[in-house]
Amino acid sequence: xxxxxxxxxxxxxxxxxxxxxxxxxxxxxxxxxxxxxxxxxxxxxxxxxxxxxxxxxxxxxxxxxxxxxxxxxxxxxxxxxxxxxxxxxxxxxxxxxxxxxxxxxxxxxxxxxxxxxxxxxxxxxxxxxxxxxxxxxxxxxxxxxxxxxxxxxxxxxxxxxxxxxxxxxxxxxxxxxxxxxxxxx
Length: 185
Hints:
GO terms for molecular function: DNA binding; DNA strand exchange activity. Belongs to the site-specific recombinase resolvase family. It holds the Pfam family Resolvase. Residues 1-139 form the Resolvase/invertase-type recombinase catalytic domain. It comes from Acetobacter senegalensis. The protein is an alpha/beta fold. It has two domains: 2-120, Rossmann fold (3-Layer(aba) Sandwich), CATH 3.40.50; 147-183. The protein has nine helices and five strands. The chain has a five-stranded mixed β-sheet with strand order 2-1-3-4-5, sandwiched between helices. α4 (72-85) packs antiparallel against α5 (104-137) and α8 packs across α9. The protein is globular. The model has no long low-confidence stretch (mean pLDDT 86).
């Protein structure tokens, strides 16, 4: 079976997620797993579900390496897990190249792609940090809005109604830690 995996970091990137799903469908993916969650998150439920469903002979198709993983080590770990299951990985941004990590050339290319993706991410973070510092000096930076604090009444109401912290966090799209912080636990 040919599986596809699409991911964006935030819900605001809906168009990017839809474009990935479209490209995966056009490239023969029979089942697509998609989620909007940070690539550096250790809890990616759709990726976990996908990996659990893959069997020997299956193929995983992604649009770009950074959609699957944020770091070289994470990408290589996923590739090794796929290889251990007897599965293949196809990266569309590399002209649909199959990455068989037993092949030295493919292994080198995968390492290079992962390193470049990680490098790009680090550069982006550096530019963001510089922009924030400049905005702070100019008095324009206010920081991120306190999303959990804006919902503290709702959080307390749901907790008083007997809802668990995990359920509240999922319902309001917050981290469990934010809910705990508001509740003073």
